[in-house]
Amino acid sequence: MHDFLSSIHYNGWVLPALLAIPLVGALVLLVMASTANDDGTLEAAPAARWVALITFLVELVVSIGLWWSFDPAVSGWQARVTHWWIPSWGAQFDIGIDGISLFMVLLTTFLMPLAVLGSWTSVRQKVRSYYALMLVLTTGMIGVFVALDLLLFYVMWEVMLVPMYFIIGIWGGERRIYASVKFFVYTMLGSLLMLVGILYLWVHSVNPFAGPGQAHSFSYDYIMQHAMVGSHAALWLFGAFFLAFAVKVPMFPFHTWLPDAHVEAPTAGSVVLAGIMLKMGTYGFLRFAMPLFPTVALTPWVRSTILTLSVIGIIYGALVAMVQPDFKKLVAYSSVSHLGFVMLGIFALTLQSVQGALMVMINHGISTGALFLLIGMIYERRHTRMIDAYGGIARVVPMFAALLTLVSLSSIGLPATNGFVGEFLVLLGSFKTQPWYAFVGATGVIFAAAYLLWAIQRILFNALDKPENAHIPDLNRRELAIMGALTAAILWLGIYPAPVLHRMERSADNFVQTVQNGTARTQRFGMRGQ
Question: Whole-model pTM?
Answer without folding.
Answer: 0.90
